[in-house]
Amino acid sequence: MNELTRFSFTARDALNRALREATLDEVSTIDNRHLLIGLAQLPIAESTASHVLNGLGVTADKLRRKPKRDIDQNAQLDLSVEVKKVLERAAGIAQKRGEKVIASAHLLAGLLADDTLPPLLNSTGVTIERISEALHSLDDWTDER
User: Fold this and answer.
1) How many helices (H) and strands (E) does the chain have?
2) DSSP category for residue 80
3) How far apart are CA 62 and CA 88, in angstroms?
4) pLDDT in tens, the chain (145 residues)
5) 4-136 topology per CATH
6) Helix (H, G, I), strand (E, B) or coil at 35
7) pTM of the predicted model, to two decimals?
8) Hey, what's the torsion of the CAs at 107, 110, 95, 85, to 10 degrees?
9) What is the DSSP letter of 125?
10) Sign of the C-alpha dihedral, residues 49, 97, 145, 85?
């Protein structure tokens, strides 16, 4: 997906953080867990998704398989098929809401529709339904809260 210009700075930051997580896992593909961790790591004051996730206790540390460490920042990784679908869903959700920019909340909403998310949340004690309710209770899905 080469339309990253439609993504907010914060949503692109989430994708960059996901890339770092995949590199930490020593894999060649960014998957939905990496994207979820990337969203959870964003500054709460700047990201609707991070505000929702952290408010429910879903943190990057709870989702990680390995402790955070320094990594090679020049890695070039592919997006998994699932992440590409999340990005497409996020674009569709933004369009349906009449929003031109795809923000972190749109990425989170796109993730919520994926079957791989429930097992990823097991370590957090939070369900997709709780995240969805918290996200949809917000009127403003833009970033830079």
Assistant:
1) 8, 2
2) P
3) 27
4) 456 788 999 999 999 999 999 988 888 899 999 999 999 999 998 999 999 999 999 999 888 865 555 555 555 678 889 999 999 999 999 999 999 899 999 999 999 988 888 888 888 889 999 999 999 999 888 876 5
5) Double Clp-N motif (1.10.1780)
6) helix
7) 0.85
8) 100
9) T
10) positive
Q: Which helix (H) or strand (E) holds 81?
A: helix 81-96
Domain extents in the chain: 4-136
Helix (H, G, I), strand (E, B) or coil at 141: coil
Q: Amino acid identity, residue 96?
A: K
Token pair belonging to 58:
């879903």
User: Within a 10 A sphere around the Cβ of 113, how many other Cβ atoms?
Assistant: 14
Which pair of structure tokens corresponds to residue 140? 């403003």
Rounded distance between C-alpha atoms, residue 51 and residue 57, angstroms: 10
Structure tokens at 131: 């995240």
Return d(Cα 69, Cα 65) in angstroms, integer: 12
